[in-house]
Design a protein that fits this description.
1 helix, mainly beta, about 45% strand
Length: about 475
């Protein structure tokens, strides 16, 4: 008796441990590329009521293809064999299905009164999927199992949004962030599973003291249009308004095109090339989150490598989000009254140097010349190697961080806006929503008009990720 009592206590402690482990480590998520790298096991139902003597067939699927085992916490109440649960006596039991590393459970409530089916009523076909809803990260896949009450029933699979997730013979592959419904259909019975596809966030993306609120890991095969838009041509035309001079106000030599921007091998790739386009000798790419995502304050970080060589001008920077589609500026007016945050800029001819700059002002009310504060950082290796660039933006200061080390900090009492709307506001103009820009310019006034060498053919800027955090 004492041995059995201790065994029950031990079983309960193990069950509690597994329950908390499942809650704490995201059992219902998955990660990696291809088949899910983070193992998980899904069970077709989480709670069932049945009568003494009745049985129900549960199904389960593991994301890594591992074999599953079944166990009941109380065989005096309910037994399980290969997922077939049978009610033995009135009470409650936990049915567990597990692999070597993960587990899922179903609560079984057994009633004493049997449920009697209506007489002379033929049984209709039933179709059950192994899971009713799940979340997958972009690039991951999981195989759903459909079981029909009619042996040999042909099952047809479909996805209501094939751009979000595709399905083939039950194998669901997550493609882009979004939602879709996977259906299994025999013609007379239908079952479905709701799929939520999230961004593939690798281990290490979390930052102590912050919550990750937006990111792009560039893990797909095309630019995510829900996060980014393209800027093309030689000036910014925002909803019909010309908001900058020709050549982006800097005498730049390129014409921006969409086909200069690609997502491949886990990176965003922006390529500048010597190709005559719309009267320009070069073409390149520029993308931005305007009208899609913008933030006031936060920690903004990207992992980037940029090309070296004369005439290359890569940048990771931020501008203020316009108030509305009919307004080309924010409350402080146009540039530079409304500010600019340059997280990283580089002159390609300076192989291992980057600049960090804050624009505001202007210098005086009768000029458009910006006031600016700038810093310069010499890297441990050339810019064509991976480096991380970030800003921590608060109401009282903006700090620039390169490869994890703060390199410049500007306090709010050192910036200003001469806009009438900013009068008496020390945080202006950096207290309004800003959006992110990534681009690779060619030539221009930033490096005194230095152009690429005659031997130049093409060069690329690579971005491994962009992440936005807010203080926890």
């Amino acid at each position: 008796m004492k041995v059995n009592y201790l065994r029950k206590i031990a079983f309960g402690l193990v069950l509690v441990f597994f329950t908390f482990s499942l809650c704490g480590c995201g059992l219902f998520g998955s990660g990696g590329n291809g088949d899910s790298l983070k193992p998980a096991v899904y069970i077709s139902q989480s709670e069932i009521s049945l009568a003494v003597g009745d049985s129900v067939q549960l199904s389960a699927v593991s994301t890594d293809g591992s074999a599953v085992t079944w166990e009941s916490s109380n065989i005096a109440v309910a037994t399980v064999d290969g997922g077939l649960v049978k009610g033995v006596a009135k009470g409650e039991a936990i049915i567990m299905v597990s692999t070597e590393s993960v587990m899922s459970i179903c609560t079984i409530k057994v009633n004493s009164a049997p449920v009697v089916a209506p007489p002379d009523k033929p049984d209709a076909e039933t179709l059950v999927l192994s899971v009713a809803n799940l979340s997958l990260e972009v690039g991951n896949s999981v195989t759903l199992v459909a079981k029909s009450s009619i042996d040999g029933a042909e099952i047809i699979w479909d996805s209501t949004n094939k751009t979000v997730a595709a399905v083939s013979d039950g194998k669901v592959t997550a493609l882009v962030v979004g939602k879709t419904t996977i259906t299994a259909n025999t013609g007379t019975a239908l079952a479905s599973c709701e799929i939520t596809v999230t961004e593939n966030v690798p281990d290490g993306a979390q930052k102590p003291g912050y919550n990750l609120v937006w990111n792009d890991e560039f893990s797909g095969n095309s630019l995510d249009s829900s996060k980014w838009g393209y800027q093309t041509g030689t000036r910014d035309v925002y909803h019909g308004f010309d908001t900058q001079n020709w050549d982006w106000g800097n005498g730049e030599l390129q014409y921006y095109t969409q086909d200069s921007v690609k997502v491949e091998d886990g990176s965003l790739v922006i390529t500048a090339s010597r190709q005559h386009t719309e009267g320009k000798d070069y073409k390149s790419g520029r993308i931005l989150t305007r009208d899609k995502a913008n933030w006031t304050y936060g920690y903004f970080e990207a992992k980037i490598k940029t090309p070296t060589g004369n005439g290359m001008w890569p940048a990771f920077w931020m501008l203020p989000q316009p108030d509305s589609f009919s307004n080309i500026t924010n409350k402080y007016g146009g540039w530079p009254y409304n500010g600019e945050i340059d997280i990283m800029e580089a002159r390609g001819r300076l192989n291992n140097v980057v600049d960090t700059t804050l624009h505001f002002g202007p210098v005086s009310a009768d000029t458009w010349q910006s006031k600016y504060i700038t810093g310069q950082k010499t890297l441990s290796s050339n810019t064509d190697q991976w480096h991380t660039y970030a800003v921590e933006w608060t109401a009282s200061y903006i700090a620039w961080i390169v490869d994890g080390t703060e390199v410049m900090r500007v306090s709010s009492n050192n910036w200003y806006s001469l806009s009438a709307a900013a009068e008496g506001n020390e945080s202006a103009p950096f207290d309004q929503p800003f959006y992110i820009i990534l681009n690779l310019a060619v030539g221009g006034g930033y490096d005194a008009g230095v152009a690429p060498d005659a031997s130049f053919n093409s060069a690329s800027m690579y971005v491994d990720y962009v992440r936005v955090y807010k203080k926890a």
